[in-house]
Write a structure and sequence with these properties.
By secondary structure, the chain is α/β, with parallel strands linked by helices. It has six helices and 14 strands. The structure holds zinc ion (3 copies). This is Metallo-beta-lactamase domain-containing protein.
Length: 269
């Protein structure tokens, strides 16, 4: 199985559009792994998580055939995870996309945004509303939506994804997991855990995870046998406001056996 990180930044991107903070300035100078677009991953070219505003850029940069996607999982409605207006680009009159449907999985609010964007257009998406902790078989995987502690006014989801005998936790945007999510994860065996570290060394761990929350989550997973032998743990969804360059993140996470994702990184399982 191949998991590709298409983007690894929070809402603002790094370097951010207008920002003159020292992190953005240094990222502009250094380039490379410090250049981060909005967060998404694609698995085996057929299952994608989230649809950020950088999706067109991702398809250009990585040479993606977006019509190979069969399942699109949406975590929540924030614009760095769902730029619904671009969903219309697949509709009739904008694209000749063939008759193969893309199946979209998510909760009420993201779907409302998609329906607004697609209003009156002929399109070939099939929408499947998911509920927390209720397993659902998609075209390419078995998924279980888990609860996040992110936007208190919205049901934000993490995804457990089981595909070709491998189990992945997509934990983004999570905050410190709610009790039900910890309880659900306790007897699972993961081949890969993807966590968010948006707030860096700040003390904030609700709505978004900070460094300590990521380290404690990995320790909890190890203590409970949730990670299979050698299963990688990766962090993603970084904000320039955390003030950490790629090299700084490596210095923080590598000693703890946690990999720092960057745009384009491919993980083979
Ligand atoms: Zn986000
Ligand atoms: Zn900045
Ligand atoms: Zn968010």
């Amino acid at each position: 199985m191949e998991v590709q990180f298409l983007g690894t930044a929070a809402f603002e991107g790094i370097p951010s559009l207008f920002c003159q903070c020292s992190t953005c300035k240094q990222a502009r100078e250094r380039g490379g792994k410090n250049m981060r677009s909005r967060t998404s991953v694609i698995i085996d070219q057929v299952l994608k998580v989230d649809f950020p505003p950088d999706t067109l850029y991702h398809s250009h940069r990585y040479g993606l055939d977006m019509n190979s996607i069969q399942d699109l999982l949406i975590t929540h409605s924030h614009s760095d995870h769902l730029y619904a207006e671009d969903m219309a680009i697949r509709a009739e009159g904008y694209a000749q996309s063939g008759d193969k449907a893309i199946h979209v999985y998510g909760h009420d609010l993201p779907f409302r945004l998609c329906f607004q964007a697609l209003n009156g257009l002929e399109h070939n998406y099939q929408f499947h509303r998911v509920l927390p902790f209720v397993p659902i078989k998609t075209q390419t995987a078995m998924i279980v939506p888990l609860l996040a502690d992110h936007d208190q006014l919205e049901t934000c989801l993490l995804y457990y994804i089981e595909k070709d005998g491998k189990a992945i936790l997509y934990g983004n945007d999570s905050g410190w997991f709610p009790e039900q999510t910890w309880a659900w994860l306790k007897d699972k065996k993961l081949d890969l855990a993807i966590l968010e570290c948006t707030t860096g060394k700040s003390s904030h761990r609700n709505n978004h995870m900070n460094v300590d929350a990521v380290l404690e989550t990995k320790a909890w997973m190890e203590a409970n046998g949730v990670l299979k032998e050698g299963a990688p743990v990766l962090v993603t969804h970084f904000s320039h406001n955390a003030g950490l360059l790629h090299e700084d993140l490596l210095g923080i996470f590598e000693p703890h056996g946690i990999q720092v994702a960057y745009d384009g990184l491919i993980v083979q399982l």
